[in-house]
Amino acid sequence: MEGIRNMVVRGAPLIGASAGYGVALGMLRDPNDKAFQRAYELLFASRPTPVNLRWALDRMREALLLLHPNDRASAAFC
Fold this sequence. Notes:
The chain is mostly helical. It has five helices and no strands. Helix 2 (12-29) runs parallel beside helix 4 (51-64) and helix 3 packs antiparallel against helix 4. It is elongated and about 35 Å long. The protein starts with a helix and ends with a helix. The relative contact order is 0.19.
């Protein structure tokens, strides 16, 4: 999140990839729905014009929230 917010990570595709990786790291720590939503909101708020950021976060949500929480971390890194 800090890399996106502080513009260390630049360029729409890399911002999206970084957001996806941030969600994956969050799922390692706590894979429940509430933790996912918190990670989604924090990452989304890290950028003022988050088109690719939202796209990546929405894709992660679609892929992960259908799974049992115990399966989310491994799926997030595939």
